[in-house]
Amino acid sequence: MIRPLSLCVAALAVDAWIFWQLAEGIFPERNAWLFPLARGAACLLFSLSLPGLLPPRFCPPPQAFRLFACACAFFIPVFGMTGLLVCVIPALHSRRLPAGAAGWRRVQPPGLPLRPARVRPSGAIAGADNLAGVLRDAGDPARRAEALIATLALEGRHAAPLLRLALKDPADDVRLLAYILLNRKEQLIVERIGTRMKQLHGATRDLAFALHKALAHDYWELACIAASAGSATAAFRLSAREHAQSGLLLHPCDIDLQLLCGRIDLRDMRFDAAGDAFASAHRAGLAVDKTAPFLAEIAFFRRCYSDVKKHLARTATGGRPSLNRISAYWRAKERVGNDPVRH
Amino acid sequence: MIPSDTNADITLLLEGTYPFVRGGVSSWVHQLIEGLPEFSFTLVYLGARPPAHAEMRYVLPPNVRRLLCHYLMDGTGFAKPKACAGNHAYFANSEKLHEWFRHPAGEPRQEWLDQVLLQKGQKEGAGTTDFFHSEAAWAQIGASYTRHCPEASFNAYFWSVRNMHAPLLKLAGIARAIPPSAIFHTVTTGYAGLLGAMLKQLTGRPLILTEHGIYTKERKIDLQSLFLRERQGWFDQPPEAGMEYHEQLWSRMFEGIGRLVYAAADPIITLYEQNRQRQIRDGADAARTNIIPNGVDVERYAPLRARRPQRIPPILGLIGRIVPIKDIKTFIRAIGVLATSLPEAEGWLIGPEEEDPEYVGECRELVRSLQLEGRIRFLGFQKVEDVLPKLGLLALTSISEAFPLVIGESHASGLPVLATDVGACRDLIEGKEAADRALGCAGEVVPIADHDALARAAHALLTDPVRWRCAQRAGIERVERYYRQSQVIDSYREIYRRTGGL
User: Fold this and answer.
1) Mean pLDDT of B403-429
2) What are the beta bridge partners of residue B189?
3) Strand, helix or coil at B41?
4) Cα–Cα distance for residue pair B110/B87, rounded to 1 Å
């Protein structure tokens, strides 16, 4: 409490000092650029420290609160910070809760997932794993529906398998919600594609490259999240490849597009083409650990199991639990000296 | 309104359906009235607001004595508000009823219904004025807000509470204006069901409930979809329950009304077992629940079998509204896949397009993007009898269904069916009990949202005339043996006689 308060007061002091300098005409004209920079820093410091002063029931605060605090501080010089610090924070602390709500409050055991909507992309994979468990095992359809709502906080590629899983749910409500969410994700991408395709006509070389690159990624994302897997996703991958290749014609050394081409080829089981694309990406400067999981996959399909271990050893697995599990499995098999495929 | 001097035997309470809107429930109501010419009917239609051009979609049978239309969201017509203390006893009872909605235990007390919903013992409209303008109402809303959702927006909460209660208070006036009849029969819970519960309370006459889909579930899905459509922004992270508190209030209100209606109705009828289980979970007494499946007028559809061409037409038809719940996009994609192996394949979308123009636009865009303009036809509403003989298969890709009448009609006309595994579709295609299953499959059940599986199943049936004929025969036998409309009509005749002494 003391630390955020002192940081907020410090930010307020800096803001007040800057305006005092301006008001007195002391601020050196030569270093005018320092003014917005110092103000920006003060506002940023203030907005990052202020949530620490909130009452415990607002913790963690929504992201929008920080933005709100920053905007108030920036657009209402001095008074914005003062108002938030002197009026809003004390008001939130002094707000009376209803009788029985203050002090100890008896609460029901929390349902699953515990805090679904708080799952943020930083914890996307772990979040997706948790939600998959809820979708599979929670007996109450309302809990499963909550898990679906929580997928809104995940990236499309993590959310889509969960939503497809929920399409087979025995409860109509859950199935329909999954369908609506999946359709919503697809529709957003389809609209984006439509807009970019229109811009593509008559675009300059640089803009055309940017658009082809964006379209390749859009189609790839669509292939990953499509409501129904199967032939439609193959069509999306084909479009993704076409745009990626058009982009590479304009900028042959683009690492990102080479990597994407490799991933598309790998999904289509075109291992030679995928290997070539990954090799081109390496030559253009892509780090080895970025392609190692894909090379391991190619080696697995080609039954070159010793290469699988070699490639997996080069992967950067931090924060990717599923890849960690696979690496651990192969390491374990190596230790016991067994052929993993036989087990 | 169709005037009449005499009271009817049965009052049917209808919400947003017959005779102004086409659909499965409306067709069912029409068949029921036509099938029971010995009984007279009063129809009470509940809508939101009076439409600019109310066009009847059905010709009312001669045994309909009256059609009364009421619009619940139509202006409340208040006089200028005056400060008043309000009836504290009324709000005390109202609080108890709300508490029962939150924690339902046992049956609701009669006095709650009498005093809160029907506003008995109060001057006409006094309860409404009290609710909207009294200090007692303000105190109750404020107290309820502080107790249940002090962190939510009071503005949103206050206006939600007012908007939710306006139609409920209006229903009391409507209930008093409805002429007496031997039986009240509602086709949903919701507002129509609540009106039925009020009428039972006022007149002591029995209330019958027939639920096709589960109203509370459908409203919740509607509310959630609307909420998610509105929440597309970067700052709009949805709350854990998927809706804001004031939006959940609406959903809970319909659940509470559902429980009141289940408590008042006997018998409680639905179309298939899964829905019966859902009714029990939602508060219906298992002993009062019954299943009466939909029935088909076989004689009406049997002549269509002769109009069918010798060669199986490579045309898949989807008969239904163009709305997301029918998953039209999977049908469109399936036609695209089917066309790669059966180049002359076509898909016809037969059904009204007014309900969700945005989704219709998305479907048309999908047709364009898949370059299927020459294969997919949007035919709008058509007479089923004109279309069925031209199709080679009926496809139903719905994410949710109850007991789709169109499958029975398709069976009766000799058309095999492909449908997703929802509602009673599997029972209708593969049979329910052993003897029924022995008749064989009248088509194929496919997974939800799997266009490849649908295309595979369609290809297998369309290119194998022997299998197609077997499916046709199984469908005809199944519908003639188990799903005749006359069986449904007989069941309701017996229920009307037993419960209403008709």
Assistant:
1) 94
2) none
3) strand
4) 19
Distances (CA, A) of B2 to A94, B43, B70, B146: 63, 10, 14, 49
Digit-coded pLDDT (tens) for B357-382:
988 998 998 898 888 999 999 999 89
Place of tokens 């005093």: B115
> Token pair for residue A209?
């490259």
Closest CA to B225 of A299, A184, A261, A42: A184
Largest separation between any pair of C-alpha atoms in chain B = 79
Beta bridge partners of B47: B71
* Contact assignment for A183 to B324 by CB distance below 8 Å: yes
Q: Which residues, in sequence order, are CB contacts of A238 under 8 Å at separation 6+?
A: none
CA distance B461 to chain A (A): 20
Q: Please answer yes or no on whether B452 and A230 come within 8 Å at the CB atom.
A: yes
Which long-range contacts does B476-481 make (Cβ < 8 Å, 24+ apart)? Answer: B476/B305, B476/B411, B476/B412, B476/B414, B477/B439, B478/B411, B478/B428, B478/B431, B478/B436, B478/B439, B478/B442, B479/B296, B479/B298, B479/B408, B479/B411, B479/B412, B480/B298, B480/B412, B481/B436, B481/B439
Q: How many helices (H) and strands (E) does chain B have?
A: 20, 13
Q: Are A26 and A17 in contact (CB under 8 A)?
A: no
Beta bridge partner(s), residue B10: B41, B183
The strand pair at B268-270 and B289-291 is best described as parallel
- Other beta carbons within 10 angstroms of residue B491's beta carbon come to 16
Q: Are the CB atoms for A223 and A263 separated by under 8 Å? A: no
Enumerate the residues of chain B whose CB falls inside 8 A of the CB of residue A62: 237
Residues of A in contact with B237 (CB under 8 A): 62-63, 117, 152-153
Question: Comparing C-alpha atoms, which of B340, B476, B467 is closest to residue B407?
Answer: B476
What does the pLDDT look like over A154-199, one tens digit per residue? 877 788 888 888 988 888 888 888 888 888 888 888 889 989 999 9
Nearest Cα residue in chain B from A229: B450
Cβ(B25)–Cβ(B187) below 8 Å:
yes
pTM of the model: 0.71
